């Protein structure tokens, strides 16, 4: 699995979320605290796929709702056990 540098991953996450929600967010913000739903999760996932050039699991945003932690996962670091990615994933190279 290729990784994205941590600062770049955070920039991509924040830009994608801001694009979808139409407001400024920080790494401390959470998808659910902004009132996110499944449609917005898919929209963020799609925006991240375009920015990163790789396929992502559509549930990643729902499983890792804190934007700083999401960036850590995308940057190749696992912030906590609940954010595990790729283990047993039947989608091949999706994160």
From TrEMBL:
Residue intervals of the Carrier domain: 4-78
InterPro entries named among the record's database cross-references: ACP-like_sf, PKS_PP-bd, PP-bd_ACP, Ppantetheine_attach_site
Family annotation (SUPFAM superfamilies): ACP-like
Top-level division of the source organism's lineage: Bacteria
Protein name per its UniProtKB record: Acyl carrier protein
Keywords: Phosphopantetheine, Phosphoprotein
Record Pfam families: PP-binding
């Amino acid at each position: 699995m290729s990784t994205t540098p941590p600062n770049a991953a955070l920039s991509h996450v924040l830009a994608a979320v801001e694009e979808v929600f139409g407001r400024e967010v920080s790494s401390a913000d959470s998808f659910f605290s902004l009132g996110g739903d499944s449609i917005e999760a898919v929209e963020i996932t799609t925006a991240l796929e375009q920015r990163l050039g790789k396929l992502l699991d559509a549930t990643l945003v729902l499983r890792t709702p804190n934007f700083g932690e999401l960036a850590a996962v995308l940057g190749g670091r696992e912030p906590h056990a609940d954010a595990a990615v790729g283990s047993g994933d039947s989608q091949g190279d999706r994160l």
